[in-house]
Design brief:
Helices cover about 15% and strands about 35% of the residues. The radius of gyration is 21 Å and the shape is globular.
Amino acid sequence: MYDVVLLTLSSERGAPGGCGSGGACCGGATEVDTDPTSEVDTDPTSDTDPTSETDPGQTDTGQTTPVGGDTERCATERPRVPVLACADALTARGARVETVTARSDAEIDEVLARLDGPARPDGLAWPDPDGKTRLVVATASDAQLRAVLRRLVRRYAPPPSRRPADLPGNRTLPDLPPVAVLPLDPARGGTHRDLAAQLGLPRDPAAVAAAVLDGTPRRLDLLRNDGGSVTLDGALLGAADDAGRPLHWRARVEVDDAILTNGDEPLLACAVGNAGGYATLGDVTLLTEPDPADGQVEVAVAVPVVVRSAFGRKRVRLEVRRARGRAVSVLPREGKVPYLDDGVEGELTRKRSWWIEPGAWGVWSI
């Protein structure tokens, strides 16, 4: 039978993202403190990783808000009701269950070390493909799931100088151990669907337990970037003023060899999609076929274009340009560009590149 670790990220850790809407993740707990201000990801790594995502311009200016997001936090540290219910379901099936609340990256790493395989001759840490320990990540947001995946990447991605011969040619890291996702907010509202909903993963704790014990790994693509981070769902670049009106900005956006914009024209938004969380912006369709398992990233830019009618009158129409490929780069031409990346707010001040790692991570599903 399996050893199962139920991992929850502590609010004390300052992990990006919160506990969902109205404390629903706490199963009706009363010790709920909702922060009315957005939680800005000023240092998403919270460690000294030399490849960490540290952007000197990634600060909260208080003037513009990235298109489309807000977060709330839950102050209680006691196990959430869904976590307890999932633990009970696993125990009833004979699994050995441990619940862990991680308050730092080091504590996350201690859990992930249990997924290591046997020692290799080259000395690299490598996941055990036949391990008897399975991981359930209790998530209040996609950002929390991303935080765990980032630590997995940091643990198992070999440095370029030590690339092993058994690593696939189209990848920079091995198959990461699959994780089960336990959403802590089963009643999340709004138009934005979290990654579990997009993937059709179970939200009921008993169903999650069944997926852990009886399911099979479903491999998914992972976006890495040159800032040292990862993206599971997608990123949306752009900003709105206090009245909700989109602000113009400029950047050069390239997808493989295709140039969507060279930086000379104003943009309203840019979507970098692995999945479909940022497929639409209001009533505008940005991404048409986001697929987290097709080995490609879909990118779209929204460009306001001035056209003249037959009577000479000017009007503005929104032109959406799209491309698909293995890699994308965004080079801001002026100032700071606010963005949301898996729900985490930041500001882009220099060139950022994302590339796809086909099938690099996985989830337990039935």
